[in-house]
Amino acid sequence: MAENYLLRVTAGPSYDPSTHQQVLVNGPNSVEISSEHCTARVNVRIQNYRGLPRHSPTTSSYFKQPSHEKDQYSIAFTLIPHTTIPGTSLVFGNDFDSPVRDRLPPGFQTAFKIVKWAIDPGLDGDVYADKPYLYGNVGSSINILRVGEKVDQSSSSSSEGGKQEWKIPSYIHEDGIEEGGDGDGEKVREEIGMPKGAAERKKWFLEKTHQGKWAFERGRVYRGDFFNPYLDFNREFLPRIPTVVVFHWLEHCKVQYGK
To answer: For all residues of the chain together, what is the average pLDDT?
Structure first.
C-alpha cells in the first residue's frame, strides 16, 4: 500500500500549517525557523525519497559517508534558544494529532519494549491516547550533540521595532555534525562531567540528576543529528501513520511529516 501514499515534509515554528514552509528533502539548503522562543535551521534527508515536491533528490551525499551508509533518514538541526531552557525540559520525539491505536501492528507493545531496551531507554509516552506521543529527553535521544559558542552582538541584529533577532553564524551548517564542541562549548560540556562520546553522553543523560546539571543557554549555538537505519519512510510506515511530528522542541520549533 505504500505506493498509494506520498510523503510531504514541512517545517514551521508551531503546529499551525499556515506557519510552515515546504522542505526540499535531500536538498543542499536547510530550512530556517524563527519564533519568539528560538532561531533554528533544519535539514531533512531520506534515503530513496520519492515524496513531494516531485523534483526532490532521491538521496543525499550524506548517505555516502561511512558512518551513515546504512541509515534511512536524518534530521539535522542548529538551535539558538532565546531563553535558557533547563536540561530536564527539552524533549525530542513524535506526536500525533489523531489516534493511531487501531493502526498499530500486532505485537507493538513487545516491539516498543525492545526499542526502549536496545535503542532509547529514555523514550516514554502513550501511543494509545487520543493524541498519542513518544518523547525522550533530547540529551539522551539524539545521536549527535555539538555545543557551540554563544552568539555575540555582531552575529545578531535588531528588527524595525528594536527587538533583537538572533542570527545563526554563516560558518555553521547542518552537514557532517560531529559529537563534541566548538570554542568554549567543549568546556561547557567538561565542566558538568558530560562524556565526550555520543553513546556515553546519551547514557549519561538518562540520569535525572545529570539532566538537572545541564541547560540550553540563551544565545548559545547547539547542533544535533538524529538518524537510524530502522525506519523506512517509503515502505510500511506510511500507510499506518497518516501524520507524525518527528521533531519537537517544547512546541516551539518542529518539523512535521504528513501525507
So the answer is: 84
- Are 223 and 172 in contact by the 8 Å Cβ rule? The answer is yes
Structure letter (DSSP) for residue 30? P
Residues 39-61: tens digit of each pLDDT? 999 999 999 998 999 999 999 99
Provide the grid cell at 118: 536496545
Distance in angstroms (rounded) separating the CA atoms of residues 227 and 97: 23
CB neighbours of residue 193 within 10 Å: 9
- The whole-model pTM stands at 0.85
Task: Specify the amino acid at residue 63.
Answer: F
Exposed, middle or buried: residue 161 (CB in 10 Å: 0-12, 13-18, 19+)? exposed
Q: Beta strands 144-150 and 180-181: pairing type?
A: parallel
In single-letter form, the type of residue at position 71 comes to: D
Bridge partners of residue 8, in order along the sequence: 52, 258
Predicted confidence (pLDDT) at residue 249 exceeds the cutoff of 50? no
Residues sharing a CB contact under 8 Å with residue 101, sequence separation 6 or more, in sequence order: 127, 128, 132
Whether the bond between 53 and the residue before it is cis, its omega within 30 degrees of 0, is yes
